[in-house]
Design a protein that fits this description.
The protein has 336 residues and is an alpha/beta fold. The chain is 41% helix and 18% strand.
Length: 336
């Protein structure tokens, strides 16, 4: 068990916990690792699709995909090594469809006999800036109850039903959080939620009960970075406040201080591209967000890369660090 740190000392880096999974989290971390903060990424382990799903079933291990993406995002390595970690085999019996980074994590898991140790060892190899922790080391499945009462099993299947989601839940419901993740939350100077898929990347972490209890207990500021676009099969038609309210309903109480939303206009040709897939911009309903007691930061924080809208990792990261420092100054003045 790590030794508890007695708060940030003068001159120490701010300690930031980032909770989520998927592409959105990885994009944010690529910017945040260049800021003067110590990062702990707590990552969902509910993935059951593709290479991760196969390794999960055949090797009885947590799914490595989201962990791999976060390790790669935080790595301080040559571009070629990143390509190696993300390389996906297209041919070969038993190899086709597998990602090399996933296989490296699987091999390290077999060698060390422990998934958390495997992640730490690979973090050392990749010179990762920060700590990467699974939310739990248990085998967790994500299930969804749809509005018509049907139950969908598996994170990868939930967005494919064409039905609206009523709620998601874990099997087992009493999944045990990783003790190191709880300690990181306890010691955090700030907790970031998102960006990422609301139902399949963010909520699977918050539904690990002990983990959310630690988040709620923390006196540190809690910031939610809202998605730029809705996600077909998950958040069709959702506003920014709808994202927040879904989280609150699932965990049973409000817990956020600040929400960061994009205010930049999105070019028509980009909107057309996303409309083909059924995605639309997430509307910043400022009045409702303020009714929820949230401090709202609405700024142009997106970029268009490789045909996709992404959060501008550096702009968002600088905004986050500025907010944390401001809140810490205010807390210090209140104590005085």
């Amino acid at each position: 068990m790590p030794t508890r740190r007695k708060g940030t000392q003068p001159g120490e880096q701010l300690r930031v916990v980032v909770i989520g999974g998927g592409t959105g989290l990885s994009v944010l971390l690529r910017g945040l690792k260049h800021e003067p903060v110590h990062i702990t990424a707590i990552v969902t382990v509910a993935d059951d699709g593709g290479s991760s799903g196969i390794l999960r079933e055949e090797m009885d291990m947590p799914p490595p995909g989201d962990i791999r993406n976060v390790l790669t995002a935080l790595a301080d390595t040559e571009p070629l090594m990143e390509k190696v970690m993300q390389y996906r085999f297209s041919t070969g019996t038993g190899l086709a469809g597998h990602n090399l980074g996933n296989l490296l994590l699987a091999a390290m898991n077999e060698i060390t006999g422990d998934f958390v140790t495997a992640v730490k060892k690979l973090s050392g190899v990749l010179a990762v800036r920060g700590d990467v922790l699974p939310a739990s080391t248990q085998s967790i499945r994500l299930l969804a109850e749809m509005e018509d009462g049907s139950i969908v099993v598996g994170e990868s299947q939930i967005p494919l039903t064409g039905k609206r989601i009523k709620r998601v839940f874990l099997d087992p419901e009493d999944a045990v959080p990783l003790s190191e993740a709880l300690l990181a939350i306890e010691e955090a100077d700030a907790i970031l939620i998102g960006p990422g898929s609301l139902y399949t990347s963010i909520l699977p972490n918050l539904l690990v009960r002990g983990l959310f209890d630690a988040v709620k207990r923390s006196p540190s500021p809690k910031l939610y970075i809202c998605n730029v676009m809705t996600q077909p099969g998950e958040t069709d038609g959702y506003t920014a406040s709808a994202h927040v309210e879904v989280m609150y309903r699932h965990v049973g109480s409000p817990f956020l201080d600040t929400v960061i939303v994009n205010s930049a206009d999105i070019p028509a040709h980009v909107l057309e591209k996303y409309a083909e897939k059924g995605a639309t911009p997430v509307i910043c309903d400022l009045g409702r967000l303020r009714q929820l007691g949230l401090h709202v930061v609405a700024k142009p924080l997106v970029t268009f890369e490789d045909g996709y809208l992404r959060h501008d990792a550096h702009a968002v990261s600088k905004q986050v660090v500025s907010l944390i420092r401001r809140k810490r100054r205010m807390q210090k003045l209140e104590k005085e």
